[in-house]
Amino acid sequence: MQETSAPTIDYPLGETLPATGQAMAVAPGVRWIRMKLPFALDHINLWLLRDELDGQPGWTIIDCGIANPETQAAWTDVFATQLEGLPVLRVIVTHMHPDHVGNAHWLTEHWSTPGRPCRLWMSATDFHATHLASKHANNFGGAKAADFFASHGLTDPESVAKIRARTNYFSAMVPDMPSAFHRLQDGMTVTIGGHPWSCHVGHGHAPEHIALHCPELGVLISGDMVLPRISTNVSVYDAEPEANSLTLFLASLDRMRRLPEDTLVLPSHGKPFKGLHTRIDQLHEHHRDRLADVITACQQRPTTAADLLPVLFKRQLDLHQTTFAMGEAVAHLHALWYQGTLTRTLGTDGIYRFSV
User: Fold this and answer.
1) Which of 249, 181, 163 is closest to 211 using CA atoms?
2) Which region holds residue 264: left if phi is over 0, alpha if psi is between -120 and 50, else beta?
3) Computed from CA positions of residues 25, 264, 287, 225, in that sequence, does the dihedral angle turn out positive or negative?
4) I want to staple 248 with a disulfide (CB 3.0 to 4.6 A). Which of 6, 203, 215, 349 is the partner?
């Protein structure tokens, strides 16, 4: 769902962006890397943090990019020019989505030595979910996804056939995963470069998303939980078909209000910004407006998630965007269904419809 941030969001670095394969300092010991994505959302921000583990100086990488030759070539440029001759000591991944975890295996293999493994650090839920999704057609395509979307009204033969045929969507971008990892949990403190970084769990966008906050530096690496100019995708998929993702997401945002308003937020997409509480308020307002649109539609007639696509999304959607849009539409319907505003009925045609 595209939107424009209010002027009260401050971008302290202005329009400056790091070139592909280069790193830009954004805080003491924290560098910004930006890599390309082959989607409408055409980039991801990755982070390089100066670190030391077991007396060995080096770097911690946060998030990985998708596993493709272009991204790996960009990482190779970073290794050659940005690491000051020091090794990567560990790889932290905020959550399971391919643009964040895709190169986790490649990076940890590249930097591991017989006496010093370069370990993947992430939440247990997302670690195991990534293993499952990379080995099977799960959540993002295949027969089960097609059947799930059809049960919510996406029944046109062309879309169903394309989703059913997309059986390697996740594994193409996440071809392998490390066999071992170091678990991150909510409230845990990770020392990086001598600074304590606290883990903040987020739900709704991913099963167990981990954002990292450093009070000493005044920095939050927010992953996808808080983005400056677009609203995070919050979806329901076939693996958890009765999920209440939007309610979980909004509650996760509210827990971030405990962090200072002037925190420098380092998002996975868009530019670093200040104005965390303001942005949380904007996201709440955005979803309140979309929920009101859903109620209005459901007052007129029993409504499917597919019926809501032109209500919630005013632009033409490709297949990739349609699957995310369907997941978001179901998430908004479920939020209202769980709070008792809507009722859900399964028709004789096997399609769920929601009404006031």
Assistant:
1) 249
2) beta
3) positive
4) 203
CA distance 1 to 289: 12
Q: Domain coordinates of the chain in residue numbers? A: 24-339+347-355
The torsion of the CA quartet 251, 273, 278, 4, rounded to 10 degrees, works out to: -100
How much helix, strand and coil, in percent to the nearest 5, is found in the chain? 35, 25, 40
**324-353 exposure pattern, b = at least 16 Cβ within 10 A, e = fewer:** bbbbbbbbbbbbbbeeeebeeeeeeeebbb
Tell me the pTM: 0.95
Tens-digit pLDDT profile for residues 80-128: 999 999 999 999 999 999 999 999 999 999 999 999 999 999 999 999 9
* Radius of gyration (C-alpha) of the chain in whole angstroms: 20
Give the integer Cα–Cα distance in Å for 140 and 95.
15
Who has greater pLDDT, 306 or 39? 306
Distance CA 98, CA 268 (A): 13
Using the 8-state DSSP alphabet, how is residue 179 labeled?
Answer: S
Collapsed DSSP state (helix, strand, coil) of residue 352: strand
Domain 24-339+347-355 class, CATH top level = alpha beta
